[in-house]
Specification:
Layout (H helix, E strand, L loop, with lengths): L1 H9 L8 H20 L1 E2 L6 E2 L1 H29 L12 H5 L3 H18 L5 H28 L2 H8 L4 H21 L5
Antiparallel strand pairs: 1-2
């Protein structure tokens, strides 16, 4: 039990950080997600963006709670009218639109990744954890496309899940390497 608690503490870059520092890290990841939304390749009904890179890193570096909170801050900012969603979008209508299932999946994916990476620090386990997080995120996005837009499960799966697979595997690989590099540079990390 002690080893699991120690691994949980070490899995977060916030070890020993004050509440203010933790809040700043969460705000930084919310801002990074917003910036990633603006780096997009247009595609209908959902564009390719860099957001999921920051969602994965938020969970892997901030831990399950703070990673999820960083993404909730991002969603709250967009819902409140700040232009943080793709193509400078904002508002509750975006959460109900074709991209809404993905957006709602951001805090869930960050939580899942943070929860899983606390169990094992290996690069393979990190990649598996991030894959599970992406599957959760894309399942929610695909479900919303199916229920509210496509009404055809095969089309929703093709347009909401499969089409992003290669692109997001590249982002997942980058996220794994960024996490590994950052953790190696932190004091007390193996």
């Amino acid at each position: 039990m002690e080893m699991l608690q120690a691994a949980t503490i070490r899995s977060s870059i916030l070890e020993g950080e004050s509440a203010l520092a933790q809040t700043l890290w969460m705000l930084a990841f919310a801002a990074a997600t917003a910036a990633g939304a603006q780096i997009e390749i247009p595609h209908q009904p959902v564009p390719y963006t860099l957001q999921t890179l920051f969602v994965l890193l938020a969970g892997a570096l901030l831990g399950k709670r703070n990673g999820a909170l960083s993404q909730l801050i991002y969603l709250a900012a967009g819902a409140a009218g700040l232009p943080v969603f793709s193509h400078w979008g904002y508002g509750l209508a975006r959460l109900a639109g074709p991209t809404g299932g993905y957006l709602i999946g951001f805090p869930i994916a960050a939580f899942v990744v943070g929860y899983l990476v606390q169990r094992n620090r290996s690069i393979l386990w990190t990649a598996i954890s991030m894959t599970v997080g992406l599957v959760a995120l894309f399942s929610l996005g695909t479900l919303q496309l199916f229920v509210f837009f496509d009404h055809d499960l095969a089309d929703a799966f093709r347009n909401g899940f499969l089409i992003f697979s290669l692109w997001d595997m590249l982002k997942l690989g980058a996220a794994v390497l960024v996490r590994r590099s950052l953790l190696q540079r932190l004091p007390g990390q193996p």
